[in-house]
Specification:
Distance between the termini: 45 Å
Number of strands: 8
Radius of gyration: 17 Å
Order of helices and strands: HEHEHHEHEHEHHEHEHEHH
Strand content: 5-15%
CATH topology: TIM Barrel
Length: 274
Amino acid sequence: MPKFGQTDADHGQRPGGARESQRVGSKRSDEGTALAQTIANDERLIFALDVPSAEEARAMVTRLGDSVRFYKLGLELFVAGGYIELVDWLTSRGKQVFVDLKFFDVPETVARAVARLKDYGARFATVHGNDAILRAAVDAAEGVDILAVTALTSLDQGDIEDLGFRCDVRELVLSRARRARAIGCAGVISSGLEAPALRAALGDRFLIVTPGIRPVANKALDDQKRTVDVEEAFANGADYIVMGRPIAKASDPRAAAEAIQARIARYFAERGGQ
């Protein structure tokens, strides 16, 4: 079976909360993995810190100032060097950190890697794999919530079929999400297009983090295929959205981030949220 798909089968206020509520980690969903407090609106925007070096990352964070409180650190920064030091630097400044390394290896190796995250104050970490891999990550997690990868937003139905899956992408995402929830993951990474089905099937006490956000309709100018805009993502059930290029490539990234934050605040204010 292809590496991407190794599986055994196949709004207002929602749980999320302040950092202190997260530190219990994601041991099991039936032990309160879904978080008890409401998510602060200005933490719902997660900025994808996709830059070539830790130095450039620090410069971008400084430039964005208080317009962004939550940062996603991925593979590019990991191989650039200074990744863990950057995590420390961010958390020391009161920022939330999402370790997006999509851990995928034999369960014991994943468990050992996830266990090390307890020393660094990360809020979320992504894991990609079958039930055994997800379970190993959940059991090893201390102070970090595990998010299962469902299907990358750069993949469409044709890509899913090319990878050997003979099912609708939404069926695949829902199947993986159900299994992740049963195992004890805090939530999933999911396109906003699949979020309505996930929310309907899995309820409010399961986090949905949605990447592939575009401020307006995507015009196929980049590698993201299954995209939604800001308001559509939350209306579809997302708890957090992840944005990178639309902010980073703006002439004024801070102003762009502030504009997104204003849209988020307005969306929830109109629905009686925070």
